[in-house]
Amino acid sequence: MNMFSPSILKELLQRTITMRKTFILMAMFAGLVTPLAQAADNEMALTIKNHQFSPAEIKVPANQRIKLSIHNQDSTPEEFESHSLNREKLIPAGATAVIYIGPLKSGRYDFFGEFNPTTAKGVVVVE
Predict the structure, then answer these.
(1) Cβ(79)–Cβ(113) under 8 Å?
(2) Predicted local distance difference test score (pLDDT) of residue 33
(3) Main-chain phi, psi angles of 83, to 5 degrees
């Protein structure tokens, strides 16, 4: 003998389906948000001041994508250049530029300022 009327069973079934859909959407959203939170952990800041990069050496983990945020505090533009990273970016005076690198294998990756190559030098050390 069935204790529930067909209309109650139908309503319970609809609620179950809605709850499952909500759970699936929440799981998908969590899967999208987690990489974004992890990406924030892999951000490195560089400064250009007096035609020099600071810090001149940055250490990053291997096999991860890194966001380099480079702020040019000089009154002239500088061009971030790295043959080993295959990156080139013009950074106007007073501006900040973002460059993504990696995932990289362990090693040393040199970079320099193309407009001031004798003073604006640096290296990314991947461990």
Answers:
(1) yes
(2) 55
(3) -75, -40
Which residue, 120, 124, 67, 122, is CA-closest to 98? 67
Asked if residue 109 has pLDDT above 90, the reply is yes
Has this prediction a pTM greater than 0.70? no
Cα angle for residues 20, 21, 22 (degrees, 5° grid): 90
What superfamily in CATH does domain 42-126 come from?
Cupredoxins -  blue copper proteins (2.60.40.420)
Q: Where are the domains of the chain?
A: 1-41, 42-126
Render pLDDT for 6-42 as a digit per residue (tens, 0 to 9).
777 777 778 878 777 777 767 776 666 555 545 456 8
Neighbour tally for 109: CB within 10 Å: 21
Collapsing DSSP to helix, strand or coil, 35 comes out as helix
